[in-house]
Write a structure and sequence with these properties.
There is one protein chain. Helix 3 (about 65-85) packs antiparallel against helix 4, helix 5 runs parallel beside helix 7 and helix 5 (about 125-150) packs across helix 8 (about 210-239). Helices cover about 80% and strands about 0% of the residues. It has one domain (about 15-239). The protein is globular and about 50 Å long. The protein is mainly α and about 240 residues long. It contains 8 helices and no strands.
Length: about 240
């Protein structure tokens, strides 16, 4: 769900004064927390208001072709949101990019959450467990980067290639109607964890101190991807 492309400058947080670096990191994770809370609040509203049911109906029209259009639209919106969030001239555009991405994620998650709500015996428990594991993995991976101070930027090309391969499998599954299965979901959990490792490393070593909005967006995208596949695994096992 992330393009792994961010416009970095020369004044990285790694080279900034300690006060500037601490402020950047604090702002990044504060914005990340707000994005997660906004995602949860938006999902709650969409389901409570019944809007989610209308979105499900739209997704159901046209079968696999409809899902391809949704996937294509999501990728387009993601690139636009990332471009806005990386704006060097407008703070408003940066926040608009983060907000747009949160809304896009909330919409794309609706079919998965709807499936769990319908087929799981205890959907709230499934979602809670997936959320706790996602948070635990995120905190563990983040701790590794902050404690070791290692630069994992070499993972960028690997993630880019892996992302294209995963996208190919997803598109093929939609076109030919086969299930990717739990093995693919576990592989994608590892992929998302690696993405968090890479993006957290970028927070320390690559981003400018004024790019906290863009940094929080990339972290949110990786966390959302991790949560998606952990939730998929829990939902499948509960079935």
């Amino acid at each position: 769900m992330n393009t792994y492309e961010t416009t970095f400058g020369n004044n990285s947080a790694a080279n900034a004064l300690p006060e500037q670096r601490a402020r950047f990191i604090r702002n990044t994770y504060l914005h990340l927390a707000v994005a997660i809370l906004a995602f949860v609040g938006l999902e709650t509203y969409l389901f409570a208001s019944g809007i989610a049911n209308s979105i499900i109906s739209v997704f159901s029209l046209g079968g696999g072709m409809s899902w391809l259009l949704v996937l294509g639209a999501f990728m387009g919106v993601s690139m636009l949101a990332s471009w806005w969030a990386n704006s060097q001239t407008s703070k408003a555009m940066q926040y608009a990019g983060l907000g747009l991405y949160v809304v896009a994620e909330a919409i794309i998650f609706i079919p998965l959450l709807f499936k769990i709500a319908v087929f799981s015996s205890n959907p709230a428990d499934v979602i809670m467990k997936a959320g706790i594991i996602t948070l635990g993995l995120f905190l563990g991976i983040t701790s590794v980067v902050f404690l070791t101070r290692s630069d994992f930027s070499f993972l960028g090309p690997i993630l880019a290639i892996g992302g294209f391969v995963a996208l190919g499998f997803i598109v093929a599954s939609i076109l030919f109607g086969f299930s990717l299965g739990s093995v693919f979901a576990f592989i994608m959990v590892a992929f998302a964890g690696t993405a968090i490792l890479y993006e957290t490393s970028n927070v320390l070593h690559r981003y400018n101190t004024n790019q906290h909005v863009a940094a929080s967006l990339t972290l949110f995208a990786s966390i959302a991807l991790l949560f998606w596949y952990i939730l998929s695994i829990f939902g499948s096992s509960d079935d």
